[in-house]
Design brief:
This protein is an alpha/beta fold and 243 residues long. The protein has a domain of 157 residues: Rossmann fold (3-Layer(aba) Sandwich), CATH 3.40.50.300. A six-stranded mixed sheet has the order 6-7-8-3-9-10, with helices on both faces. Strand 7, helix 7 and strand 8 form a beta-alpha-beta unit. Helix 3 packs parallel to helix 6. The longest helix is centred in the C-terminal third of the chain and has 16 residues. The protein is globular, with a radius of gyration of 18 Å. The structure holds adenosine-5'-triphosphate (ATP) and magnesium ion. Magnesium ion binds next to helix 1.
């Protein structure tokens, strides 16, 4: 255990029924940094996030948050410890308003605290502030992703787990999402992000970890990886590198 690390996986074996996906996976993610999880389809990237969020329980191995073991805790306990998860795809209540979606995000906090915190979250998202009473399904894809991130921020999380936020968003909106995550990391939040949009994401990340078959095959400084002339060749067939 090292105290610079916010998240630590030690020899984690986890999977679905009898089928193991994470094969004694070990890695660390530093506090206040964006760590990018890369790897081919099926490598186990989303499974890492699900395991951290208590949706899967490790068979063996240990997981630490800020040096404290959190292996096997349930979602409620993990939320209370400051872990928030923004899964892949759309995860809003489309028929409810922006405001109501935010209220639901604060369900573990109680209504009073939630209402106190909503303005703080909206300060990050001027567009959501303008659309507060609109139905979530009427927002653009980028606005919906902002709302999902905003809902996670209500918890004032220590850690944000975010799975492929760029899917379905135009390049400019993707940059906005990455910039926001960068801002949060600079303010001390630890971000663990899965992203296929490798080149863009590396510009905003601090470190990159590549997985293959549930094992770590590389952990490298993001800037070093970005400037590596062999980036595309290194990842050919392993990580899709967008032009
Ligand atoms: N609920 C589940 N039940 C059984 N197997 C699953 C389940 N979810 C995922 N898997 C399997 O686990 C493996 C890893 O899946 P995972 O979703 O972690 O991959 P990934 O790296 O996120 O891939 P992608 O880039 O396609 O999102 C895959 O072979 C997948 O089929
Ligand atoms: Mg995935």
């Amino acid at each position: 255990m090292n105290n610079n690390y916010c998240i630590e996986f030690n020899d984690v074996l986890a999977g679905y029924k009898d089928f193991m996906i994470l094969n004694n996976l070990s890695f660390q993610a530093k506090r206040g940094c964006i760590t990018l999880l890369l790897g081919p389809n099926g490598a186990g990237k989303s499974t890492v996030l699900k395991t951290l969020f208590g949706l899967l329980k490790p068979r063996t191995g240990r997981i630490y948050l800020d040096g404290e073991e959190i292996t096997g805790l349930n979602q409620k306990e993990l939320l209370a410890k400051g872990i928030a998860f923004v899964p892949q795809g759309r995860n809003l209540f489309g028929q409810l308003s922006v405001f109501e979606n935010l209220e639901l995000g604060g369900i573990t906090l109680g209504m009073k605290t939630t209402h106190e915190r909503i303005p703080e979250v909206l300060a990050f998202f001027p567009r959501l502030k303008e659309r507060l009473n609109s139905m979530a399904s009427s927002l653009s894809g980028g606005e919906q992703k902002q709302l999902e991130i905003g809902r996670a921020l209500l918890l004032r999380p220590k850690v944000i787990l975010i799975d492929e936020p760029s899917i379905g968003l135009s390049p400019l909106v993707v940059q906005d999402v990455f910039k926001l995550l960068r801002k949060l990391a600079d303010q001390g939040t630890t971000v663990l992000m899965v992203e296929q949009n490798v080149k863009s994401a590396l510009k905003y990340a601090d470190e990159a970890i590549a997985l293959e078959s549930g094992q770590k095959v590389l952990q490298k400084d993001a800037a070093d990886l970005l400037s590596d002339p062999h980036l595309e060749r290194l990842f050919l067939g392993a990580v899709q590198v967008n032009p």
